[in-house]
Amino acid sequence: MATLLGSEVSRSGRKRRNCNSNIVTKLTSSKITGKGFSRGTQLPGGLLQERDKPAKWHGIPDLLQKLHESSHPNSDLSHAHGFLKSLSSQLSMEAMSFVTEDRKTAQESTFPNTYTFDLFGGVDLLVEILMRPTLTMQKKKPKMNDELVKDCLSVLYNCCICTEGVTKSLAARDDFVLFLFTLMTNKKTFLQTATLIEDILGVKKEMIQLDGIPNLSGLVQSFDQQQLANFCRILSVTISEPDVGNDDKHTLLAKNAQQKRNASPSRAEVNQVTLLNIPGFIERLCKLATRKVSEATGANFLQELEDWYTWLDNALVLDALMQMATEEAEQSSTESSDESSLATSPLRHRLPQSMKTVHEIMYKVEVLYVLCVLLMGRQRNQVHKMLAEFRLIPGLNNLFDKLIWRKYTASNHVVHGQNENCDCSPEISFKIQFLRLLQSFSDHHENKYLLLNNQELNELSAISMKANIPEVEALVNTDRSLVCDGKKGLLTRLLTVMKREPPDSSFRFWQARAVESFLRGATSYADQMFLLKRGLLEHILFCIIESGCTSRDVLQSYFDLLGELMKFNIDAFKRFNKYVNTPEKFQAFLTQINSSLVDSNMLVRCIVLSLDRFESQTEDVKVMEVLSECCLLSYVARVENRLSFLFRLINIINVQTLTQENVSCLNTSLVILMLARRKAKLPFYLNALREKEYTEKYPGCLLNNFHNLLRFWQRHYLNKDKDSTCLENSSCIPFSYWKETVSVLLGSDRTSHCAIVSYIDEPFMDLDRDLLED
Fold it and tell me: Which residues form a coiled coil (predicted)?
């Protein structure tokens, strides 16, 4: 900043050191070294006043000095509050420009007033004023004026967003961070406190431990519903593992190494347990998630919603307006803060209907996120039990048409990436969090049947009875008092909107993932037929073959869903053949599969497994008919096509690049070889791999790579119960056979026709011998 750091020219033309430059330099140096002046208020007042105008400090150092002098212990803080208000008015304009304009890098030249305030010790002084009551030895702690506390917090927040480094310096003070939580007990200062805490925790190097917050249980139980919803924005930072990028893109080698180093539960996991131990916490979140809001009316609702969002950079302005509405309601002697009480507020009636709706949506996003994280944690079964007991799923079902998925035209759909942290509107975030919650709720859990209503459960029973197969145990054990109400269950409603989405809509990715999670686990013929009867297979095939969809994420989600829908189901293959009824359609389908095996390999695995089962059911006329007619089964039945898949699956991965996303390629290649081993054809397949190497003129590379991959497979899966269970359930191949096949392939006997080493010539052995060495 030229006015602070530049030089003056004397009348004689000589340059002399600028006094204010000296002041700034000394203050900056003391902040770094801890030596010299600890704050600008220690400087002579006359000097500060003399240099104020040339330096364009706008009286901030002088006001800070007066604030310091009037805020000593036992002093009348009313004078101090007056000085703080004068400072606040200068700083708030800079903060407003930061929020309403495009965010710029915080620096002194952009926000000179906030920079000057921090430079002269304003931030430290406000922290000292706020924490002063905690330092007294008196039994009865002195109470500070609520308005003074609010203004202190607001100024601190303004400094955080406008001046680089302030948030990090506050985050480094654990005593101050924990103290802030105590201020949340006061409803009048709650909003400002929550906003500042959220900003601080977002940059804190070490995750805060919730059990270190004084009387956390009492604090949370004291919150009304709106405060609890706001508190979820803070909790989301404390229960999520640190974001170090897309989880699927992390190599499994790196993740396994990290798990070895961090064997004990992480802070996020400990915080999840702390929250679950708070009486009534999950029940209140369920009520928040399913709370109804006033229905928006008017043809221009969505446009109105987007107009609001363009200037709502975050929830601050909206929260402030809603707080004003609440305060009006309180003044009218209305004590409850739920929706019915706010409806009596004159200000709330003056707020646009869309603002009331988006306010509720923004909080539901945070609540659903917290529930989703807890569902994916180590206490998953405990959380599942509580969510079922408190009827979360029926409640969301009742909100589906009126709030979660209202009808509007395709032009209003926004296509964006699948990252849940993307910068998108509340409406989009709400839908994505809702779909992620459904996915987590259904995935490999018997409570998935709560997504249906009683009539739909009866339909599943009838399908099983007609097919003369027993009902799955989870369906029999479902508590019918906890399932969805109304004419349609949540799963059926989801299928309806899924068919209406534009081809490239990113919602399709999450919709497909949510439906697929319902089918995951041990294959259920009744579940598959329930979805097949609703035209899901034809819809998926249309999207893959004819819709023109180009999104790899969406296509991958549909391949995975199609695999779960068709696995071992002869009716599904018959339907497939009926839809893909021309060579052109079938070639288009194969082109999509072959364009990226990382995306489609789960479908390939499903077809290979299904073909193997059907070939063992030769006495079944219907199966034999489909086997002879189905173009897809005929294609995979040809050995050269299976070998082609095997070559590419092994070739597109190696140990260093294995991730949660592409490790399925390794397992699919193993499935092909396990089925070959069952038929005593394993040597044939291994020899084909060897011949492929020589044809492509890279002897040893393919088989050595596969050998290394299998060595990693042993380390990765033999220590993970969940992963092994998933492999067994999804393939219907006992995990013992998986382990046995891998051991056979990794055998060291070069005379064994089933060991990889016997197909690698000596000069090309162990190209990557040390790859997995610790």
Answer: none
